[in-house]
Specification:
The complex is a heterodimer of chains A (574) and B (78).
Chain A lengths: L4 H7 L8 E9 L4 H14 L1 E7 L5 H6 L4 H5 L3 E5 L2 H10 L7 H19 L3 E5 L20 H17 L5 E4 L1 H8 L1 H4 L2 H7 L8 H15 L6 E4 L10 H4 L12 H16 L3 E7 L2 H10 L12 E5 L3 H12 L6 E4 L3 H10 L15 H8 L14 H15 L5 H7 L2 E3 L1 E2 L6 H10 L12 H9 L3 E10 L2 E13 L4 E9 L8 H15 L4 E4 L13 H4 L3 E3 L2 E5 L10 E3 L1
Helix pairs in contact in A: 1-2, 2-11, 6-7, 20-21
Chain B lengths: L2 H16 L20 H15 L5 H4 L5 H10 L1
Classes of the chains: A alpha/beta (574), B mainly alpha (78).
């Protein structure tokens, strides 16, 4: 699945289409020219254009500590700091008397760098952790010697996560250690190239490292995988349910069955962390569902699946159907199927869907998939596990809507309740996540980190609202985010209006506008101003303000607060 | 494989790695003669040649060749 370094380099010589530009600073203590090229090429494939400032190597502290450095002049959106294990080892050798506190000293140095950056810029920091070098000075005994390099290196990697990453919203770790774990130290590092060029990453490792770092950036930019679509026969279990029958399919602890069971545990873990699962199988629906309902060794249950499609239509059409129910982009979907023919049909018809080339032997599925790192994410909140349920409920709602002749009656029957609140420390992670995930119903697509949300909470210039929506089918959770900004004495500007597409067509837009106008009135404003900034994905709200009765002026939309009549809604305040 | 066959195979590698099919190699060609052949792309070439011929160069060999002919001699000696 990975392109080679040469292919990535060639990518840069092609005519680059208009892509979103992102400013990235690359600071390393070894030569980073190749990493620079690999990052740019990988970004292109992901739909971004990286503009990279690459400091001369060994300049990390100078660039960051000096407020007038080229680094600060560049105004990076992201700062990648890449310190190598080799330089770390030589620092360690030289710190004769302080080896026992080496990791802690290094951590406070890194914290200091981070604080300097955060005090002067809004740049997010991506710090590469350290692939292990066991210098074998103590052999295995190093694990019992606190001052040994191996001990200090392990401690340093742990502290990077436990002391810095967990505690700082804008600090992210590029997990080079896990890349080394997966691909091996000899694969990742080439001594002769290091000696000749001061580069610590082999040419073969560069595309993988670049993929990981770019993955962090693109998920922070709102682009990541949200849905996993699974084939069943020989993908989710061994054998063919229609031919072999319930007793003969392979799953459980014996033989090849073990491979499928472990695969299912992995899929279930993804589901629990918020990945939506869908089934797309060529089968009769009742036969396809039977193992989920009756087989004792099935780890995945029907409850885990948001959309279940089993029929004899072609898979590209079925994936289109899944897409229309879930209302998410094709580029956020991954499709796993053991059959090369089906994979190619989907690739040809839906080139945006990610279709990994699964190995022939099911025993190798997991290791292969681990290597691809498909499910990068920039956030995690407790609600994520609830997502499947919400999509299932949505499917049920769609069925019920058909039985009402009149939409108003249907809306009344739903008994909708919304909890409207300013952002608080409980909603902070979810609000930040929604600003990063929402692409379609999002008027200006401003992305906020948790730290940004925190400053909005404390700002005198802003009014913030989060909305939940509950109805008789269940709780949708937090589904709408509003940020209002004081423009002047008379005018409130709608800095952010985004909504989850799950709650479309329920009058939530009207309910939200009522709330906005109420706030404006209460605080003495005369006008509410909205703006639509077009992206590749938010065409659905192009006419949003017009529909709600705003009038256009200088590419913005104005609403006169005094003449606004509250809209009829069927949602009540909690 | 004789020297000429290696030269032909090397030419293909140079075309591919340096992304220029116009490059013509002879035994006397040096880095000076090929615009795209700089110290960085030299590393790309080394890695590609190692893979194509199934050989490993030592770190001093990497910097020792004065022209393509010497590189070929080195491959032949492996």
């Amino acid at each position: 699945m990975y392109k080679t370094f040469s292919e990535l380099k060639k990518e840069l010589r092609k005519d680059i289409p208009q892509l979103k530009k992102i400013r990235v600073a690359l600071l390393g203590d070894t030569a980073t020219q190749f990493l620079n090229i690999a990052l740019k090429g990988t970004a292109c494939n992901e739909g971004f254009e990286f503009e990279i400032f690459e400091a001369d190597f060994g300049q990390i502290s100078r660039q960051i500590l000096d407020p007038s450095s080229e680094y600060y002049e560049f105004k990076a959106d992201y700062t990648i700091i890449f310190e190598s294990s080799h330089k770390l080892l030589s620092q360690y050798y030289k710190s004769y008397n302080t080896q026992v506190s080496f990791a802690e000293n290094k951590i406070s140095y890194i914290e200091d760098l981070y604080r300097n950056i955060q005090s002067r810029t809004k740049s997010r920091v991506i710090y590469c952790n350290f692939p292990v070098i066991n210098n074998q000075v103590f052999g295995n005994f190093s694990n019992k010697v606190e001052s040994s390099f191996v001990f200090q290196l392990n401690k340093l990697n742990y502290l990077l996560s436990a002391e810095i990453a967990i505690k700082n919203d804008n600090f992210f770790i590029a997990d080079l250690l896990s890349i080394q774990n997966k691909w091996g130290r000899d694969f990742m590092f080439s001594p002769s190239i290091y000696v000749n060029t001061e580069m610590v990453l082999s040419l073969d490792a560069l595309p993988i490292v670049a993929h990981h770092i770019t993955g962090i950036i693109s998920s922070l930019e709102g682009k990541f995988k949200k849905c996993l679509i699974l084939d069943l026969d020989n993908t989710t279990w061994g054998g063919i349910i229609g031919d072999d029958g319930l007793e003969k399919i392979q799953i459980g602890s014996l033989g090849i069955g073990k491979a499928f069971t472990e695969f299912q545990y992995w899929v279930k873990a993804l589901q629990k962390r918020g990945i939506i699962l869908a089934i797309c199988s060529k089968n009769d629906e009742d036969k396809a569902k039977e193992p989920f309902e009756k087989h004792p060794d099935m780890v995945l249950k029907l409850d885990d699946i948001a959309v279940f499609v089993a029929n004899w239509d072609n898979k590209a059409d079925n994936i289109r159907k899944i897409q229309s129910i879930l209302n998410i982009g094709f580029d956020s979907m991954v499709f796993l199927d053991d059959n090369p023919f089906e994979r190619n049909i989907v690739r040809e018809n839906l080139p945006e869907v990610c279709v990994p080339e699964l190995p022939e032997d099911p025993a190798e599925y997991l290791e292969y998939l681990y290597g691809l790192n498909l499910f990068e994410t920039a956030s995690f909140s407790e609600n994520d596990a609830e997502r499947t349920k919400q999509y299932q409920v949505e499917a049920q709602r769609a069925v019920d809507l058909d039985s009402f002749t009149n939409v108003e009656d249907f809306l009344k029957s739903m008994a909708m309740i919304s909890d409207v609140k300013p952002f608080d420390s409980f909603s902070k992670p979810r609000v930040s996540q929604l600003t990063q995930r929402s692409n379609q119903f999002n008027l200006r697509t401003v992305r906020y980190s948790e730290q940004d949300i925190e400053s909005l909470m404390n700002s005198e210039k802003h009014y913030t609202f989060s909305f939940t929506l509950e109805d008789k089918y269940g709780d949708n959770g937090l589904i709408c985010v509003i940020v209002l900004e004081k423009e002047n004495q008379e005018t409130l500007f709608i800095n952010t209006w985004l909504m989850s597409c799950r709650v479309l067509k329920r009058g939530m837009e009207d309910f939200t506008l009522n709330t906005i106008v109420e706030t404006a009135r209460k605080n003495g404003y005369k006008y509410v101003v909205g703006e639509y900034l077009s992206t590749a994905k938010n065409q659905m709200v192009k006419d949003h303000y017009e529909r709600l009765g705003f009038t256009e002026q200088d590419e913005k939309w104005i609403l006169d607060v005094d003449h606004y009549e509250s809209k009829q809604v069927y949602i009540n305040n909690k | 494989m004789n020297k000429d066959e290696i030269l032909a195979k090397l030419t293909g590698i140079f075309h591919d790695e340096l992304d220029n099919d116009g490059i013509v190699l002879s035994f006397e060609t040096t880095a000076e003669d090929v615009e795209e052949w700089d110290s960085l792309s030299h590393i790309q070439l080394i890695v590609a040649v190692e893979k194509a011929f199934g050989v490993r160069f030592t770190s001093s060999e990497i910097q020792s060749w004065n022209n393509v002919g010497e590189m070929i001699d080195c491959i032949l000696a492996k």
